[in-house]
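Example record for the data management plan.
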Amino acid sequence: MTAPGVLIAEDDDEILRLLALVLRLEGYTVYEALDGARALEMFREHRGGIRVVLTDLGLPGLGGIDLIRAIRAEAPEMKIVGASGFGHDNMREEVLAAGGDEFLPKPFVTGDLVQLVHRLANG
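Corresponding structural encoding:
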């Protein structure tokens, strides 16, 4: 059986590598994208193997909110998490309104991310 896949869209290369490493150590197959357009491309390419999408909201080009909307339109069943360390007070509501399942404020503890991904991937 193939490990559940997680697509991470994060424009900070160091954060992306750290999150990917943590999730790989937990047994997930991880797909990495540094911008929203590449994330959408990877999602379409590997959709069958992806269970959870984690996207930063401040992506260059196609932003995180637009990425959430695009994925939700193509895959209503997909579990999507929006994450951000910036923005206004209603960021959680914006993520949920776009079709996201969860909002994860940055900075977050990697253990919290792992718990959230486990819950969504297996729920």
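Summary line stored alongside the record: Residues 102 and 116 are 9 Å apart (CA to CA).
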